Amino acid sequence: MEVKDVVREYDNGLVQALRGVSFTIEQGEYAAIIGPSGSGKSTLLHLIGALDHPTRGEVRILGENLREVRSLDQLRAKTLGFVFQLHHLIPNLPLWENVTLPALPLGLSRRERRKRAVDLLGRVGLDHRVDFLPVKCSGGERQRAAVARALINDPQILLADEPTGSVDTETGQQILSLFEDFAREKNRTRILITHNRQIAAEAARVLRIVDGKLVEDTRNDAGEKASEPS
Questions:
Q1: What pTM was computed for the model?
Q2: pLDDT, tens digit, 9 for 90 and up, residues 151-184
Q3: Which residue blocks in the chain are alpha helix, DSSP H?
């Protein structure tokens, strides 16, 4: 995955959320993006996740320039898993249907989608909430359902925006452990935004964004060892 000279402007250039950001993430790498609130971290993750386009510059996923991809829906469905800062669950759908929404472009049967969802909800400790509406679940349960949704299509790249920000410490560690197990299975890439220094210290790579600029890109030897397959 490559980000090259990326600029993202709003309000006809009056606001520059990102200013000339460039870096490359290798397959299987675990990277944490840190920085102050409002520095452009979420904007950057949305560009990587094909949810937005840069004003200038390129974002390439598996060698493809996202501006030239014919179907971003297919790319997101087959390649990317996204955990949003807020869970973004649809309130009138039960958890299992929320989890399967990214699988809709793949044309799977309702039965197969439910089977996948039930399995993943069990892995995040929500097997007893499969048919519950989000409003009947706690904040931590809704966030865990959002994690299951990100994993439903077995993505090659997992993107997470503060995935532990709205849950307690124990649940947060469970979520991170699930990410790690998922990544190790097939050498998948993980990129997450965090304000938690302990979480960032576990990553093999730490990118620091300040005022829309990449000001630091460091390798973390301890994190590198922790993220290598055993």
A1: 0.86
A2: 998 899 999 998 887 777 887 888 888 888 888 8
A3: 41-48, 72-79, 95-100, 110-123, 139-151, 169-186, 197-201, 221-227
CATH 3.30.43.10 given to domain 2-227: no
Question: ∠ at Cα 132 (131, 134), nearest 5°?
Answer: 135
Domain spans of the chain, in order of start: 2-227
User: Which of these, 26, 21, 64, lies nearest to 41 by C-alpha position?
Assistant: 21
In angstroms and rounded to an integer, the radius of gyration of the C-alpha atoms of the chain is 17
DSSP string, 75-111: HHHHHEEEE-SS----TTS-HHHHHHGGGGGGT--HH
Give Cβ neighbours of residue 229 (< 8 Å, ≥ 6 apart). 184, 187
Whether the CB-CB separation of 88 and 137 falls below 8 Å is answered with no
C-beta separation of 218 from 206 below 8 A: yes
3-state DSSP helix/strand/coil percent for the chain, to nearest 5?
Answer: 40, 25, 35
User: Taking CA 34 as the corner, what is the angle to CA 31 and CA 36, rounded to the nearest 5 degrees?
Assistant: 170
Give the number of other CB atoms < 10 A from CB of residue 173: 14
Sequence-ordered list of residues with C-beta below 8 angstroms from that of 201, at least 6 positions apart, any chain: 220, 222, 223
Which residues lie closer than 8 Å to 211 by C-beta, 6 or more apart?
A: 19, 39, 40
